[in-house]
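Case study: Major facilitator superfamily (MFS) profile domain-containing protein.
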Amino acid sequence: MPLSPKVYTWLCGLFAALGSVTFGYDLGIIASVLPSEHFNQITGHPDATQQGLIVGCLLLGAFASNIYVGSLADWVGRRKAIIVGCLVFLLGGGIQTGAQNIHYMYGGRFLAGMGIGMLAMLAPLYQAEIAHPSIRGRLTTLQQFMLGIGALIASFIGYGCFHGLSGQAQWRLPLGIQMLPALPLAVFILFLPESPRYLAMRGRNEEALLVLARLHAHGDVNDTFVVAEHREILKQVALEQEETRDAWTLLFTTKSNFRRLLLGVALQFSVQMTGVSVIQYYSPQIFASIGIDTSTTLGLQSGNSVIALIGEVLCVWYIDKLGRRWPLIWANAISGLTFVIGTIIIAVFPAGSDNHNASRSFVAMTWLFNLVFSSGIGPLSWAIPVEMFNSATRAKATAITSSAAWISNCMSHPYSATRFLQTDPA
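Here is what the predicted structure looks like once written out:
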């Protein structure tokens, strides 16, 4: 029985989002790698600044990739650009897994970050361009959902390796596993259709029609929606063809484009400055500050990943029903409230107060923040920028907004590393 067009489109979007599993996994696994005794021996017992740099190199690499990934996607296509991202990530993951000193970790994390940055930008772009308008929002939020899957896998693997293994296997194995999602993505993307918008931009109009028919009408090129969508794409491409040559200029000189660009950058900046990644990277040290040991912390992190996944499922369910703006506003308001309460708890009951109820309350606030973030702020921050721009500027504009995410994420680490790594986990 042939797959329905909607199921086929979902599967295409799902495979494209496999790259986000690598991002989520890297976000979660580093928390269990840094405390490993053998890892610290190999890397020369890095201090707070060096550990922060190990974490930050991933983000610097992701930022660097966004300088060129938009142009690459417009030149070779979305699929081939995704393959390049996979190969770069695999190289970085291999260097980390075989690291012989801290410099291997710096280089491996930077290359892995370049791959992750490419995949994180390309996946929602590809999903938005193959999706039917009725499911576009849900399809682009698969990015955050798959990120949650990666973080969940990392939390359980990290917990198991930290307790069940010793020596170099304790940290090399979890670092090596990060490469697994990129392998099937690099293979399966070859069997997925190219973006019809990209094909039209390259003058391959018949191929664009065939792809649209395959995605939305069981291959029927005479389907009403397919014909109308094809005509609309060709019309847009014809209008934007001249603009595409000057896309970088138009982003900054056209008032409407520049306003959208500022909104996209501001959105990504504000999302990352919530510190959500800091909680992922330094959870053992954060929880140690209220008297929770590393072993318990890694278990709590697993629970946190489950909660995040629940939130991401909620977002996939509601996004095309409730829209984008108000869910984002409410999610930010509630997240801010959890931070206020959590800060009060730490101020009133600092480490050493031995108040278990306070510790539980603080953990509850971090979990509630993660639920709200994952059900609104996180996925919408990737879905909204993709929908804001026309096809002439979309790839390059998305690269810029993604860069804002990485650089603002990186900005939070110098202070975070110095602050949280001063206290050794109990």
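For the exam, be able to explain this: The chain has 23 helices and no strands.
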